[in-house]
Amino acid sequence: MPKRTLFIVIEGLDRSGKTTQTAILHERLVAAGHDTKLMKFPDRTTAIGKMIDSYLKSESELDDHAIHLLFSANRWELASTITQTLLHPSPITVLCDRYAFSGIAFTASKPADIPFEWCRAPDVGLPAPDLTIFLDISPETAKERGGYGEERYEKEEMQRKVRAVFGRIGGEMIASSERGDEEHASLAQGGRGRWVMIDAGRECEEVAKEIWTLVEPLVKEGADTPIGKLWIDKGLK
């Protein structure tokens, strides 16, 4: 099949520098001649996104199951946009600040004790990233950064639990890629579909440099595999 562009996701705890690093990477990609569509989840501009925004600012209350499904619906609202962009005749890279992995990590960390598998199920079949960069930072370090605590989930204990769930997700993604399972062949081939953890507790410039070193050669090469679908072969139809 002809080459296509890459779908890159940057994940991490709150105040890990995700938005900053996503913006820096976007600028570098564009400067290097790669047209890039920048996306962010939740997308607070849609009707569903506005409900999520109100919840995150603690201006409204929703059942934990209901808000989780709204987060997922917000991603599904834009799933076709991601796919169409990646397959566009004019090459356009998709760069995303947060994705389904955040949805799982935050809901599974709540006191409601919602099962991990239930949290993952609504996102089964979403377009799968070719590369996920996880910005790892301790909750203690994140707490020292400006603006911490402004939104609902920015509590140290909550962030510690979220970090642990992200560890589980990353471990599963890495194991699948390393095994080269048939069910993940479209992602594992060529080292794509990778989950890469980066120490985000360092200076911004150091983190940005490591991200660029990782991303630049992959974007130049492009992808010659179909767009994957998240967890579609795990029996979670």
Describe the protein in words:
Residues 10-163 form the Thymidylate kinase-like domain. This protein has 237 residues and is an alpha/beta fold. It has a single domain, classed as P-loop containing nucleotide triphosphate hydrolases (Rossmann fold), CATH 3.40.50. The protein is 47% helix and 12% strand. It has ten helices and five strands. It has helices at 18-31, 47-56, 64-77, 79-86, 100-108, 116-120, 139-143, 156-179, 185-188, 204-221, and strands at 7-12, 36-40, 93-97, 131-136, 194-199. A five-stranded parallel beta sheet has the order 2-3-1-4-5, with helices on both faces. Helix 2 (47-56) packs across helix 3 (64-77) and helix 3 (64-77) packs antiparallel against helix 5. The two termini are 27 Å apart. Residues 181-192 have low confidence and may be disordered.
